Here is the input.
Amino acid sequence: MESTDTPGAKSSRVNSGAVLPGREARRRLRKVRMGKDVLTRLLVSIAGYGVVISLALIFIFLFAEVLPILRGANLESPTSYSNPGPAVETRYIATERYQESAVRFSADGQVNFFDPRSGEAQLEEQVGIPETATVRSFAFAEPRTRLVAYGLSDGTVAVARHEYALTYPDDVRLVTPKLEKPLGEDPVVLDDEGQPIEVLAVQESARGTTVAGYTADGRMLMARYEARRSMMTGETELTRTVHELPAPPSVPTRILVDTTMRNLLVGDAQGFLHYYDISQPDQAVIRDSKRVIEGDMVSVTAMEFLLGSVSVIVGGSEGSVSQYFLVRGDDNIGRITRIREFERHPDSITTIFPEYSRKGFVAGDAGGNVGIHYGTSARTLKIENVSENPIANLTVSPRNNGILYTDGTGQMHHAELWNRHPEVSMKALWNKVWYEGRSQPDYVWQSSSATDEFEPKFSLVPLTVGTLKAAFYAMLFAMPLAIFGAIYTAYFMSPKMRGMVKPTIEVMEALPTVILGFLAGLWMAPFLENHLPSVFTVLIMMPLAMLAMAWLWRFRPAWIKHHIPPGWEAAILIPVVLVVGWFAVWSSPLIEVAFFDGNMRQWLTDVGITYDQRNALVVGVAMGFAVIPTIFSIAEDAVFNVPKHLTQGSLALGATPWQTVIGVVLLTASPGIFSAVMIGFGRAVGETMIVLMATGNSPVVNFNIFEGMRTLSANIAVEMPEAAVGGSHYRLLFLAALVLFGFTFILNTLAEVVRQRLRAKYSSL
Here is the structure.
């Protein structure tokens, strides 16, 4: 059969067949590209959301660790039972560490040990009150000593101690209470005249047991008892030294003796607090008197030392609770100073009991309210009404996890207590705090000490200031070198020289910061201390020498022009830098002799400038070297990627290269340069090893370049290994990490906003 197709139709089918496969291929290619674009956008979105989620999880984790320190105290519903022992007035109650045994001292001298949670009786003892005497007063020493004393009507004092033996029969903890009499079985004589002891104080230290009392005839007596065991007979010999002190201006309501046996405080019925200097008891004198309870018809109704017997808590008949301690003035004499006040109770304060291991205390009032307070942080964590009757006696367990109280109705009450982090408050973290032993409020970070009476100082201000100080001096050193070096390298340097310089500087970023810190601490710090004038010589002479070399370069001979092509001018500065550096070090001793009496460090000290060997200058130089590669690399890329048509157009219009740099290149590259600076600053803020090794790690609040600092990151690295998991110190380190995280997050967010605005502003160029 013959074909009816014409030649033209055949040609058309051939062309159509050739075109269709090409269109199909392009269609497939577009689909593949679209699929890749969609996949790429999806992966980028997932990665972006992953970063956001990761940051959110980090924040949540840090905040979860910090949250408990912001929580207040909590009291559970109390368990009540009848007072163990005789139906007489209770003078004192206390519990042992595990709350498996408690003690009640009655007004008649009977001592009953019992289970504080159930009231079950464990042991009954007698202090040993003679039948011819009656109890007129009672006192207890610092709770850790477990020492108590009864003042009797015949001028004697009965001293006893409640003790607890801890054993583990069959791997089960067993607490066995007992009563000891450290000064003997019989009461000791305080007043030889036999007058009743109306107000009493007792304290124990390595120097013996001190008892102070106010007698019925208005005399103030103090006696020190020392028990010595004879090596020959094994018997205990008791020595007594008695001193009569100046009588207080009015009738005392409470007397306290500190553990140093140097200070005695008396609160009276007129609302005054009197300070006796008893460092030389035979020459004791009233150093200061101050009204601590304001108003008419008011008195000091309760008064106790905090842990360490430095601060005293004073409770008034109008419900006030205040903290005082002695502050020495220019005359080196301690003055009674009100440090802080706590939330007022609804009724008159009846009892105060200090915590065993912290600077906190509990207070009870006549309205049946129990208040939980903490000294350093000035926190009143809770005031709760627990009874319709006045709180007669109150104690807190040694582990601060339970309270025991009586309300004068013949009932004992026990309640579990949650109060783990009272020493932390926003005020104590960020404001000045008046710490014990200091003459004024201050910012201090000191988390540990060698003594149990230590007052932890948790101010984040020194650490935050130290972080900013280290970053500031690092950026002050790194920014000019990195940015100017990036501009010169990208715009003026020859491609071949740029190909050597840029990779060399970027390789510096791989240098471990621990190496830089090691070199800074062990080599640079001593070197700068011994050649301190050379630092200032370099700062002055180096720029002048470079300007002089640039001026001389204008008059270079023709043969130099042929051998050094454009873009290689920076190479001639290498010998200039080396010569100026050598000259600065060589002339350092001569400058010290000529201008600083042979020792610049001592000269700085004489004019009032503190110089530490490991200081901000060392940190600034060492950390600057760590930050320079980051800033340089990003800024150099930003300058180098400025479109050529912009710079060429500027030059074509008659602008000089420097005018082009200032008017075109810097403006166009400003978003990238700004990003470089902020990334470098973020790295400086978070740097740990250099600061850790090149400073004295002193948490001070100043910007003196010759003093050290402690940063948030270095503090976390130093103290986290020794912090007890779950403790206040541990959680405060997490708070420091949260502050550092939040600071860098906010800083980077603001930097990104500024960068985007700069980019939008100059994108039209």
